[in-house]
Amino acid sequence: MRAIFGTEHQERRIAEFFGEGYRGTFVDVGAADALTSSQTYDLERAGWSGVLIEPRPDCAEDLRRQRRAPVFQVACSSPERAGAAMTLHLAGGYSSLNDEFVIAGLKPEGAITVPVRTLDDVLIEANITAPIDLVSIDVEGHEVDVLAGFDLQRWRPRLLVIEDHVLNLNLHRLTQSLGYKWVQRVDFNGWYVPNDNPIRVSGIGRLQFIRKYYLSLPTRWVRDGLRRLRARSGIMPPKR
Fold first, then answer.
1. pLDDT single digits (tens) 211-232
2. Of 39, 79, 82, 155, which sits most exposed with the smallest number of CB within 10 A?
3. Alpha carbon distance 58, 45 (integer Å)
4. Cα(157)–Cα(135) distance, rounded to whole angstroms?
5. Contact 115, 89 (CB under 8 A)
6. Smallest Cα–Cα separation from 56: which of 40, 80, 72?
7. What's the whole-model pTM score?
8. How distant, in Å, are the alpha carbons of 4, 19, 45, 89, 200 from that of 141?
């Protein structure tokens, strides 16, 4: 059985994981677009409740207009940064607290200053109770810092969906060290569940994992290095 899927499989994979008709609680960190490419829009339409967290004012306002869940217009990061303000770099529909975008060659088009809180702090204010059914984290390379301010043992999410372009194994290893195991990947998102969850990855799935997370790393390093070099020199890659 496969363990790596394209984005078109997301709705079906979620339904298979939780069961048809299940109505749970979600937390969407880096909610960004209210409808398109959202990890939680379909869940909300199906009767789920939750919290949307998005630091960009334009995206946050759009979320308030088009979604039912409460919106927290803040960036989530580590406890050391909480209570301060950070620079959010912008490039079209992308934004990141990191100086360099995780997408190689993407050039910043502007920057704004945004307030910073830990995810723990936001969840307490939102009166979220454990266990949370689904937590989605999509923060363009700042995921490790978000996890530093998120007590997984306290909130016990049944499913952690976290964006990972797999440029290294740092995020994967950190998530494992926090008591969660990888079970599949949908689009750019790794799916992790608590270690005591009985779900097992098949032999084929393990081979897919090894190829994606280990064998393909050198290729991605070379590809992204060339993209960043072209971006710095002003040379655009040829159109296909």
1. 999 999 999 989 888 887 887 7
2. 79
3. 22
4. 6
5. no
6. 72
7. 0.92
8. 21, 31, 28, 12, 28
